Design the sequence.
């Protein structure tokens, strides 16, 4: 496909295996239009597609596909199994010579097109994609690629009715609705992918669907260091802070990697502590040996009942004897006040906030709609700012700062663009003071501890340990060793 476009230059190519069907993906750029393209080739001939369309019509005439509701993943699989049997007979009727593998591929293709999201599901299976976007039926589907950024695909939704049908189907399967009277919808697929949909005339060009894909494999500190998002000293400093229960806020712009960094930060938590996480949509995936209770908000039903808000869960979490509280995103004053009060009463709190740098973080926290007094910001120990360069697509930790007693920040590390690295700016004041007060460690011992952590992180990189559970096991082994050393020393 790339060679058919004038002035096209191939950038990348790979295959996706979707239930036995191999999809060829080609990524190229057109020098004439300065555009980037994502071409998915399904390797199905035109004549086969014509016969599949005939099977589709006969299948629909037998079963009312529009009335299907998937209220759980188990029910979805049950319905798909039932349809497989129906479609299998039709496949044998129209493709009598098809072997088992070909039959399965054709069955999956028909199920995807009739009771799934069509060719969008191909994009959802590509682990290299972060976002899948339908702007209208008038233009191709767009995707955000981890390596190549925004790409225009060769997948087109034929009509606005089809786009709306997909949005309605997504909402219905999770108890949401999108109508002319309620033209905006936030929902999620059963896979965990977050979905936003809008209807005309709110989106004047057409109906839209935006899907932010759930990371099947969460980022680990190994991934962060290998991708140069963070360096060893900064990672070791954050590890030391989390180990010793210093509250940390991850900030940054949209798509900068705040949740990924939050997942990494929380992987440093020792095993013998109770963790309560609070999210609008479940995204965190912590090591499986942690004492972790994930909570998720719930929107009201169409009658306006049954809502469970972020504030409800924050207040409730304090009754669950937490040692650590994780909040997906801080948005409102009431939530922030409860969280800062929790910090004052001895809980460690970790969360995210939309702000592009440390200065903006302080401004956002101390002004509406959050609007907490500056005097209570000293309860927070560290601010870690994430940044994504929209031109290159690279994500980097932009700043690491500590909070002083008067609520002002003290910049510890800042990203140097020319060196592509985090560099020291100021010596620590409050973090070192807190560690000396609560752990008895001297400055020399703190420095030695950070160096020891750097050596452990280097071993993770050397051995390519990047599974979240395996990385967690390494941290837990470290904590067990430290506990044995303390018992031996009699402290």
Sequence:
């Amino acid at each position: 496909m790339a060679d058919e476009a004038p002035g096209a230059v191939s950038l990348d190519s790979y295959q996706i295996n979707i239930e036995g069907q191999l999809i060829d993906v080609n990524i190229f750029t057109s020098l004439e239009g300065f555009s980037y393209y994502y071409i998915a080739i399904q390797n199905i001939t035109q004549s086969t597609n014509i016969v599949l369309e005939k099977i589709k019509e006969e299948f629909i005439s037998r079963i009312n596909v529009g009335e299907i509701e998937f209220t759980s993943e188990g029910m979805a699989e049950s319905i798909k199994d039932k349809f497989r049997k129906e479609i299998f007979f039709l496949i044998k009727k129209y493709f009598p010579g098809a072997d088992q593998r070909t039959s399965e591929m054709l069955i999956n293709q028909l199920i995807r097109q009739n009771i799934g999201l069509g060719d969008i599901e191909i994009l959802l299976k590509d682990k290299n994609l972060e976002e899948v976007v339908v702007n209208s039926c008038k233009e191709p589907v767009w995707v955000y690629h981890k390596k190549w950024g925004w790409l225009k695909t060769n997948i087109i939704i034929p009509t606005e009715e089809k786009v709306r049908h997909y949005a309605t189907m997504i909402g219905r399967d999770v108890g949401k609705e999108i109508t002319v009277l309620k033209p905006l919808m936030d929902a999620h697929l059963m896979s965990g992918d977050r979905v936003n949909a809008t209807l005309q005339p709110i989106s004047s060009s057409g109906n839209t669907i935006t899907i932010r894909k759930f990371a099947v494999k969460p980022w680990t500190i190994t991934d962060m260091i290998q991708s140069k998002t963070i360096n060893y000293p900064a990672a070791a400093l954050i590890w030391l802070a989390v180990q010793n229960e210093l509250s940390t806020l991850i900030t940054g712009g949209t798509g900068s990697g705040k949740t990924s960094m939050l997942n990494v930060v929380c992987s440093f938590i020792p095993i013998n502590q109770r963790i309560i996480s609070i999210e609008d949509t479940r995204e965190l995936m912590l090591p499986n040996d942690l004492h972790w209770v994930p909570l998720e908000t719930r929107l009201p039903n169409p009658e306006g009942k049954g809502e469970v808000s972020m504030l409800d869960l924050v207040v409730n979490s304090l009754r669950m004897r937490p040692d650590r509280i994780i909040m997906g995103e801080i948005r409102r004053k009431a939530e922030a006040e409860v969280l800062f009060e929790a910090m004052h009463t001895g809980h460690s709190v970790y969360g995210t906030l939309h702000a592009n740098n440390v200065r903006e973080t302080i401004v956002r926290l101390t002004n509406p709609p959050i609007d907490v007094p500056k005097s209570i910001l000293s309860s927070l120990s560290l601010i870690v700012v994430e940044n994504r360069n929209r031109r290159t697509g690279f994500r980097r930790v932009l700043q690491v700062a500590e909070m002083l007693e008067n609520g002002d920040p003290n910049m510890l590390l800042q990203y140097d663009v020319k060196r592509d690295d985090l560099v020291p700016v100021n010596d620590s004041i409050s973090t070192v003071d807190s560690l000396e007060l609560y752990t008895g460690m001297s400055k020399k011992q703190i420095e030695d501890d950070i160096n020891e952590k750097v050596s452990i992180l280097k071993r993770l990189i050397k051995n390519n340990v990047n599974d979240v559970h395996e990385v967690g096991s390494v941290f837990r082994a470290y904590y067990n060793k430290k506990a044995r050393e303390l018992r031996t020393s009699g402290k």
